[in-house]
Amino acid sequence: MTDGWFAGLDPDDTTAAAERVASGRADAPEDWPATAVDAGYTADTEEYYERLRAATMEATEAAVTERERADDQQLVHAVRAMADCERTANELAERVAEWGGSRYGEAGSGVGYARRIAEGEVGDGGESGDRALRSLAERVVDVSEEADELRAYIERTAPAVAPNLSMLAGPVLAARLISLSGGLESLAKQPSGTVQLLGAEDALFAHLRGGAPSPKHGIIFTHEYVSGTRREERGSAARALAGKLSIAARIDHYSGDRRPDLQRELDERMERIRSRGGDGE
Amino acid sequence: MTPSLPGGVERRDFDGTTAIATQGHPEYGEATDGQYRRWNPHRSKLGAMLALGMDTGLEADQKTLYLGAAAGTTVSHVADLGGPTYAVEFAPRPARDLLSVADHRPNIFPLLKDARKPESYAHVVEPVDVVVQDVATRGQARVAALNRRFLDGEGRLLAAVKARSEDVTADPEAVFEAVVAELRDHYELLDTEQLDPYHEDHLGVVARPLE
Ligand SMILES: C[S@@+](CC[C@H](N)C(=O)[O-])C[C@H]1O[C@@H](n2cnc3c(N)ncnc32)[C@H](O)[C@@H]1O
User: Fold this and answer.
1) Beta carbons of A181 and A252 less than 8 angstroms apart
2) Predicted model pTM
3) For B2-41, how does the pLDDT look when each residue is reduced to its tens digit (9 = 90+)?
4) Which fold has domain A162-281?
5) By CB atoms within 10 Å of each CB, which of A37, A59, B20, B105 scores lowest?
């Protein structure tokens, strides 16, 4: 004899009931409505279904919210780790380049040069110095490949966490914005002017201290709609993009609906901005 | 002779075409006519089974366990038929939409559960008249077998089998044959029909549990 979700519960305690719905078990179903009435948990079947509904709605709401929250934090960790890996790979690659230049007189740079050393295309010597340098170069390649793996993970998961934001911004920029504001919920609560400047905090403080020009965009500069727009129109492009991204983040956080229209609206808006004055390029 | 539609499902005229419909709150942009809303067979495999005239044995007010509820498109129509509707879905994102469909229907009980683990919801779900299955995941016959326990001898399994979920590269006919063979260990098959033109490479199955 197994127990139904309601066994031993106070009928007025919906939260305990929701918890039971979420974590209880039984091997086989039974006539739970009749059992509940017999046990005095509810007066009749109608009331049974009302309580069951309150409990299942609360349980599902809580489980969905928890899973969504967990997902956006996973994304935050992944995008920060990706940035760390990229930065570390680049720094170490510069070290490899300097060292390689001193040994082989060849001035390469970046991860590509480290890869050539790692694969023995450059300075394939057998001295201990060659081996040490090659070993370091191999680490650079590993860390850079780890960054690629993390990018692939972000590209897979961001569209599930924030479908509209990922559609408009691309998954990686979407993840960066979520990371910069600490989570999808806080991003959804930012005014669009703040979203426009996320990632430009240093420039903003310099401006506020006086002297420096006010920044027109933060990390959203990496979006083609900003970087690929003529300089004179970039401020407007950044403002328009940030506006749509804020709306997307809010829909993602509060409803999760997919809204393909947003993309079309953004495209049209950009079309207009880009065709103002100038030659349209 | 096509079997009659279940009580609660009617043929209505929408902009000059006749289509099946139920009465309830609209949920997915379907055409409406007064209280009636079109049950779009292109959006719903169960809708396609009805539109194709399969004898589903559905009736008004039946108790239903729905596996793979997703955003609740089909669940909303099933719940419009009036019976207690247990809606199992394991992905949080569509379950969010399912909750809003359930907001409009007091007879939907949403459950964020894995249909391959019936023991995680058998303490909530009672024995039902109908199990509807549309999980589109590998191992569809196994999901049906595991959930056999919710049906008594008179109950019905209404399943949509998606060939590509079992094996993307195999010939759909071969996949259907294998799934059907596995289903026969637990069910007597009453009717099977491919769901095109509404859904490519899907097989609709009506079955009754073996004793
Ligand atoms: C084709 S969709 C269902 C569409 C839905 N029946 C309708 O017509 O509105 C398949 C759904 O099954 C869900 N699913 C797949 N495997 C599952 C499992 N093991 N347990 C519960 N749900 C599952 C997927 O998350 C997806 O939402």
Assistant:
1) no
2) 0.66
3) 668 898 999 999 988 899 999 999 999 999 999 999 999 9
4) Serum Albumin; Chain A, Domain 1 (1.10.246)
5) A37
Q: Do B125 and A24 touch (CB under 8 A)?
A: no
The long-range contacts involving B56-61, CB below 8 angstroms and separated by at least 24 positions, are B56/B3, B56/B6, B56/B156, B56/B158, B56/B206, B57/B130, B57/B156, B57/B206, B58/B6, B58/B9, B58/B130, B58/B156, B58/B158, B59/B6, B59/B7, B59/B129, B60/B6, B60/B7, B60/B8, B61/B7
Nearest CA-CA distance, residue A187 and chain B, Å: 19
Give the model's confidence band at A277: pLDDT under 50 very low, under 70 low, under 90 confident, else very high. low
A52 CA from centroid of ligand 1 (Å): 22
- Here the ipTM equals 0.95
Tokens of A159: 């569209």
Residue B15 lies in a domain: no
Q: Is residue B142 part of a domain?
A: yes
- Residues of chain B in contact with residue A27, where contact means CB-CB under 8 angstroms, are 119, 122
What does the domain layout of chain A look like in residue ranges?
Answer: 14-68, 71-161, 162-281
Please report whether residue B68 resides in a domain.
yes
